[in-house]
Write a structure and sequence with these properties.
Length: 451
């Protein structure tokens, strides 16, 4: 087995991956807060950690992936109140959780092993807060509970920040009740207009975001599990706080490696739901197909920012088509000797801090090599494509029949060309492209194909 290496944010370098339990791997990744449909940027951690699990399993490790759903959060209360007409916050969370599952199912990567809901982990959360109060790392004030940041001497180690330069981002909320402005909320007393709440020893309320993840992760994986993942926008305060809570309650670290993916960039800015112009995942998958979306994500190294746009998706779709065409020409059996080096390079690249762009280059090198020989064999191809969640490219494309309206546009284009109106013909070709059809002119006339 290869020595797998991954970048650990806490140590600030690529380190050897040494599983807590020999032969097994455990991953917890922060999932979405379900207040609206997820956008393409939210899909990056889902893809990265789903594929990481596939790679670890290909390397012989029995892998458990937990990706939570944050269904109790300020943003959900706000969105439920702002809806027209207003809806109950738990109803909105249920609806958006179902939409998240459907939207990510469309990628064809399967589901994580566990997808815990914060709202179904309240007992574990209350018990963890109780332990922190007993340990002297948390205190209750007027129905709220706060974590005492200065009780943790290791606080700031994960995000490499000095304690004095920190802002929890909680604004004025609870400012008068905090003993120290650095402290953050573990439990928030119910406020006017919040319709979902639970009873706790400190009063009726609901948990803070950070304690939800500490409790869900520990509940399913125990403390000291292998990899904690998420977007790099979560390093501070979310992950710093998760780490601190577990360290002070349990006396040991929550995770061995903290792994963070970069953000998607749109016209040079970070993709967050608060900025406009963000495409929902469902629309992107519908337009380009799941294989192109996955190839788009793996075309960049997970730690780097990734530019999102039509050009990038177009290139990914072309790549998907080439792989599918080549796969159709391969036959079952072992690979000839000269190709096995590319397969090794593919898996070696993934073992080296999950370098998917380098692995992709090895896959393409394999395909180029295979095109020049009689019986290239597909065992390598199956292994590589399955690892990247692209096994559907082993099947011929399902080509939908062009519908009547598309065929009418094609006929109109033929007439425009016959009449020498090429400007009109080009406009009609663009119109067909927007519907997902490419016009191919052949000896027997023009036909419509899916690009
Ligand atoms: Zn989290």
């Amino acid at each position: 087995m290869r020595q797998i290496r991954l970048h650990d944010t806490r140590r600030g370098e690529v380190v050897d991956f040494e599983p807590r339990d020999p032969g097994r791997a455990s991953i917890y990744a922060c999932g979405p807060t379900v207040y609206s449909r997820i956008h393409i940027g939210n899909a990056r951690p889902f893809v990265v950690y789903s594929l990481l699990k596939r790679f670890l399993e290909a390397e012989g490790l029995e892998t458990t992936l937990v990706m939570n759903v944050t269904d109790v959060n300020d943003k959900i209360y706000d969105a439920a109140r702002a809806a027209d007409p207003p809806v109950a916050s738990d109803e909105l969370a249920r609806e958006m959780t179902a939409a998240y599952v459907a939207d990510t199912d469309a990628l064809g990567l399967g589901r994580p092993d566990h997808e815990p809901l914060a709202g179904e982990t309240i007992d574990g959360i209350i018990a963890l807060i109780g332990t922190l109060i007993e340990a002297g790392s948390a205190y209750a004030v007027d129905g709220d509970v706060y974590f005492s940041v200065r009780s943790d001497s290791a606080y700031g180690e994960l995000s490499h920040r000095s304690v004095d330069a920190m802002d929890q981002g909680e604004g004025v909320e609870g400012a008068s009740r905090k003993r120290d402005p650095l402290d953050f909320a573990l439990w928030k007393a119910t406020k006017e207009g919040e319709d979902t709440a639970w009873d706790a020893p400190w009063g009726r309320g609901r948990p803070g975001w950070h304690i939800e993840c500490s409790a869900m992760a520990e509940g399913l994986l125990g403390v000291g599990f292998d990899i904690h993942g998420g977007g790099n926008d979560l390093v501070f305060p979310h992950h710093e706080n998760e780490a601190a809570q577990t360290r002070m309650a349990r006396g040991s670290e929550l995770a061995r490696i903290w792994m963070h993916n970069g953000m998607l960039q749109l016209a040079g800015e970070k993709m967050a739901k608060s900025t406009g112009n963000i495409e929902p995942l469902a629309a992107v998958v519908e337009r380009w197909g799941p294989e192109a979306v996955i190839l788009f994500f793996v075309s960049g190294h997970y730690r780097q920012p990734l530019l999102f746009g039509d050009t990038e998706l177009e290139a990914a779709r072309t790549s998907a088509r080439r792989i599918r065409e080549q796969a159709a020409r391969t036959v079952a059996g072992p690979s000839p000797e000269e190709l096995s080096g590319h397969r090794e390079a593919f898996f070696d690249s993934l073992a080296d801090d999950f370098n998917t762009p380098k692995a992709l280059a090895a896959l393409h090198a394999w395909l180029r090599g295979a095109s020049g020989i009689d019986s290239p064999g597909n065992e390598d191809l199956v292994a590589m494509l399955t690892c990247l969640g692209l096994e559907s490219l082993l099947e011929p494309a399902e080509v939908p029949e062009a519908d009547e309206s598309a065929l009418a546009l094609l006929r109109e284009r033929e007439e425009a060309r016959a009449a020498g109106d090429f400007e009109r013909a080009d406009a009609l070709r663009d119109e067909l492209a927007a519907l997902g059809w490419e016009v191919r002119d052949g000896a027997g006339g023009a036909e419509l194909v899916r690009p």
